[in-house]
């Protein structure tokens, strides 16, 4: 009787270990996370005070030199010195207009 009990318990333990090993090897839990979209029937609205910026007075100083007479001579000064052929200048202008 004891011998049969030991034999049956040994067989049951072996079956349990084999099933556990097989489950670890082949069973992988579902990786999808389900998010419930049910919302409570009534969510109380919360009013939040946002800081309102009021326009303030800004002083701007503008220096104007207005003359009503016709100029006797005119000069134009440029900071950039452009050298090169006309074709290269056109390509530079195209690059500038496409980049903007």
Average pLDDT rating: 76
Biggest sheet features: none
Which outline best applies? elongated
The span between the termini is 95 Å
Radius of gyration, whole Å: 43 Å
Count the DSSP helices. Answer: 2
Structural class given helices, strands, pairing?
Answer: mainly alpha
> What amount of the residues lies in strands?
under 5%
Q: Segments where pLDDT lies below 50 for 5+ residues? A: none
Q: In sequence order, what are the helices and strands, one letter per element?
A: HH
| SS elements, strand count | 0
Helix content: 25-40%
Question: Can you offer a commentary on this structure?
Answer:
With 100 residues, the protein is mainly α. It is 39% helix and 0% strand. The protein is built from two helices and no strands. The longest helix is centred in the first third of the chain and has 25 residues. The chain is elongated, with a radius of gyration of 43 Å. The mean pLDDT is 76.
Brief rundown of the structure:
With 100 residues, the protein is mostly helical.
List keywords for this structure.
elongated, mainly alpha, 100 residues
Secondary structure topology:
Layout: H1 2-26, H2 86-99
């Amino acid at each position: 009787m004891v011998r049969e009990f030991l034999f049956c318990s040994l067989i049951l333990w072996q079956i349990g270990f084999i099933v556990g090993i097989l489950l670890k090897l082949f069973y992988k839990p579902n990786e999808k996370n389900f998010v419930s979209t049910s919302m409570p029937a009534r969510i109380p609205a919360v009013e939040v005070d946002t800081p309102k910026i009021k326009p303030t007075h800004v002083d701007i100083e503008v220096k104007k030199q207005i003359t009503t007479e016709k100029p006797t001579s005119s000069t134009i000064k440029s900071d950039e010195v452009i050298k090169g052929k006309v074709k290269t200048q056109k390509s530079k202008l195209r690059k500038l207009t496409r980049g903007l």
